[in-house]
Amino acid sequence: MVVDEVGYGASGAGGDDQVGGAAEIGSLPPLAEATMTTLAVRKCAGRVRQLYQSSVADLFEQEVSTDLLKRRELLRRLDVVGLRLGECADALSDAMLKRSH
Questions:
Q1: Apex CA 88: angle with CA 43 and CA 23, to 5°?
Q2: Residue 91: inside a domain, yes or no?
Q3: Is residue 6 part of a domain?
Q4: CA distance 48 to 51
Q5: C-alpha to C-alpha distances, 19 to 40, 76, 92, nearest whole angstrom
Q6: What is the pLDDT of residues 67-89, one digit of tens each?
Q7: Rounded CA gap, 75 and 57, in Å?
Q8: To 10 degrees, the CA torsion angle through 30, 36, 40, 46?
Q9: Is 83 in a helix, a strand, or coil?
Q10: What is d(CA 80, CA 23) in angstroms, rounded to the nearest whole number?
Q11: Is residue 84 part of a domain?
């Protein structure tokens, strides 16, 4: 499943290597915390898009069928999630930059 490959388990929490662990983030100043969160979200968004591209490439190696087209549509929707994650990271980064001045 794509979600597992991105680094999230069944609980939905990210791995310690992605952001640095929840304990470390809570001890950072607000701007640094937002910067670390934004970076982690951008990495996740990029990873989702990479997984989409490789999954679609694997999918089109199969014979074309209605099931294949349904799977492609599902993968496309997941890719859109990756796009929106990137946009959210950009908006968060812009907001924090404006508030820091």
A1: 60
A2: yes
A3: no
A4: 5
A5: 6, 27, 16
A6: 999 999 999 999 999 999 999 99
A7: 11
A8: 110
A9: helix
A10: 31
A11: yes
In a domain, 88, yes or no: yes
- pLDDT tens digits along 45-65: 999 999 999 999 999 899 999
Residue type, 69: L
Q: Quote the domain boundaries for residue 72.
A: 63-101
Number of domains in the chain: 1
d(CA 72, CA 56): 7
- Residue whose tokens read 């924090």: 96
The residue whose two tokens read 């990756």 is 82
- Angle, helices 30-59 vs 66-100, to 10°: value is 160
How far CA 10 is from CA of 5, 6, 18, 44, in Å, comes to 12, 12, 16, 16
Q: What is the C-alpha to C-alpha distance for residues 28 and 55, in angstroms, rounded to an integer?
A: 37
